[in-house]
Predict the structure.
Amino acid sequence: MIEFNLNGKMVETDVPDDTPLLWVIRDEFGLKGTKFGCGIAMCGACTVHLEGAAIRSCSMPIAMAKGKQVNTIEGFDGKHPLQEAWIEEQVPQCGYCQSGQIMQAATLLEKNSSPSDEDISAHMSANICRCMAYPRIKKAIKSAATKSKSAVNIYDPATSEES
Amino acid sequence: MNLLNNFSKKKTDDSLQLSRRKFLIGAANSALIMAFAPLTMSMTTSATEAIKQNAFSPSIWFEINTLGEITVHVARCEMGQHVGTALAQIVAEELGANWDDIRVVHASSDPKWGFVMTGGSWSVFQMYKPLSQAGAAGRLTLIDAGAKILGVSPDSCEVRDSKVTSGNKSVTFAEIISKGKFDRTFTPEEMATLPIKSPDKRHTIGFDRLALDVPPKTNGKAVYGIDVELEGMVYARPIIPPTRYGSKVLRVNDSKAKTIKGYLGYEILQDQSNWIEGWVSVIADSYHSAIKAADAIKVSYQPGDTTNISEQDIIDEGHKLVNSKNAGVLFVNDGDTDKAFDSAANTLSATYVTHTAMHFQMEPLNALAELKDGIWHIHCGNQSHSLTLPAVAKALGVTDDEVIIHQYYLGGGFGRRAYGDYAIPAALTAKQYGKPVKLIFTRPDDAKFDQARSASVQKVSAAIDDNNELFGYEHNISAGWPTLSMAPGFMPKGIDDKGNFDPFSTSGSDHWYSIANNRVRTINNPLAQKTFTPGWLRSVGPGWISFGAESFIDEVAHELNKDPVEMRLAMLDGKGKNKGHHPQSVHGAKRLKSVLEQCKKSANWGKKLPKNEGIGFATSFGQEREMPTWIACAAHVAVNPSSGEITVKKIFMTLDCGTVVHPDSALAQIEGSILWGVSLALYEGTEVDKGNYAATNFHNYTPLRMNDMPEMEINFVESTEFPVGLGEPGVIAVAPAIANAIFNATGIRLRELPIKPEHIRQQSKNA
């Protein structure tokens, strides 16, 4: 039995230890917002947060989530500033990769409250959007960063070490 | 040639049928329902009776309930184009609806109503007129009922914001529905004469609305095919045989799989249509167990006869075909091309090759199948029930009316979900195992079963007269043909009556340049055809044919010492067959000329650029001559001649697609399709190796990512002309514009897609 925290609630599962976190989230707990894309951590559609870091759940055995905090798109409850920006900028086309894009982008804004174009490209190039809605993903991240600095939890290791 | 009509000939397509149908307005379940009905509906049946009996077309209908909510049902799938929003905007415009009252439901279609396919960039083009008329009929009916309630004459009434207004009195749609009685039938003749709003009175078409499918795609709530579950279902993963066709399973050894927790067994699939041969389906209580079990099972095969076919074999065959005088069928034959070449002062020709390209849509192929009360229920996202449903029925050995396909959001279509053959192994597994089955392809499975864009070879030749003018043009095209494999009944005859051809592997060659003697021959590559299922890939034929055609125009201009833009402009005179016709191609080639002139200005053609940088142009008329989307594209590239590295700095695109229904979605489609064009030109492409595609996953198939994205400048021409297609055309002109830019930057002419740094290095060395 493996116990972990999923979107703020403790849950447990008895699937085999090597089962990827992705299938546990989707098929055991019914949270279908996290998507299957490649199975080898190359496309980013399955991105979730493990202890606050963006990880590819398709390649993370459930055993590694034991006792840890896992957050999925559903955990944002539609209230993350990025989700609002995604609607404002009309980002999604087919939409399949967008949960992963938003989860990936959220970890950028946590570290960098006003990312440059280059910062965004470097951070987001791990995630494929096959519709290639990249210009809008970029715009939405910028607009979320500008509009809602207060709402984004900012942590900069460099400055916090100095202080 | 009209591709749509080709599809329609056999099973009349829904929009063409709509124009020959009655329109019903009646009440049912305390809502006002407006729908098309067949002409055969009895004269004595009232609209309300027909609606209560569901005797109306599900292709498109809408209802208004007593709360004033307007639900538009559309039989088009949502795969990123926000098509539901655009179609609902057309209805809302004529109806006079407040946009906040609009909902969209993606209805399943029923084969008896005609051919339905979301593809070909057809949706808005097809539905614009019937939807406008349907909305107008609804508006007239609401005005009549509203006028009665207000006690005024209908002539004094206006409709806007879901209200009928006369002077200072008004009544809402909701109130009208609660109080009014409706039972009215419009004949097709009446529908055709309904007053449609003039463009200056519009309040919805041409204005941005938040696309209705976007919010659920930001919070994980949008339901795709892969997300659907049914009580009692099991999971399955296919084991795909070594050749696409003709493989037989000899033995299956699952002894190792038996140790895997959750493994339930396997089935050797028996497809009564023989579309899939030699498939084994592995069943488990979870998908992860099915993946592991399939990896553990050993299958011995007698493979088909394509195990040794390579990309080069297919391309060699293509070279042979385009150089053969009598291969294929004639598609264009203007003037006397032989005579032109015989009498030419000079001739030149070039051969262009494009490599196998794949879909790699983000949602891997999947379907869920269940037999319930004698009916097969198939749950999956797909672009065409009309193509998919009969294929599934045939594989199962049942009739079409024993299958229902349930529609969901598509995690990418791009043509891969047009012929939904991935539902076949799901249905067969469910039939043989006797339970509802959710069959999911892993990414490598999906890649192996892709319907790739076939490798192609095309030879283009020019005859130059004594005045240094292009007066003869010949284009021989060869590739595997998707329509031959998946919808052979929809292939028209060549003009020489020597056989049928695939319009989706030919269109794009029938250009709008005025050249007196002009011949196009289109040829199937049988080696490609038997090795894999050639597929429709976003932008289809024009997506690779224009690479040859538009690169070659630049080659001719260079040979004649002419400016390639000026040479194009001179040939776009809009004369003869290129003058176009009402409504969709009115003004013809002159509109293409106009976008090219504008694009030339945007790109500042002629300005001095740094060394090893260049701008190149190409034009496109979209997916087909009968639905021209007029496009000019300029690519600004920088080339590193020693490493061969190519940087696309900026793409300029000017388009005229007539009326733009939903500007922001239109822009999104063009942004995405320009990047598709860059991706197919530089980053995508694979090869056939031992009868299979070499690419298996995103580590060896590498579409453009955010860090590869060029700057883009996109300009739409403001127009009130008939709307045409937008989902694919933006892809087409990008690759030839890049190739032409590379030539202008370096003098290196590349005739192969994808363009790779080693091609540049090779030619730099040779130079």
In short: Chain B touches chain A through 60 residues (CB under 8 Å). DSSP finds 21 helices and 30 strands in chain B. The first strand of chain B starts at residue 22 and ends at 28. The longest helix of chain B spans residues 123-150.
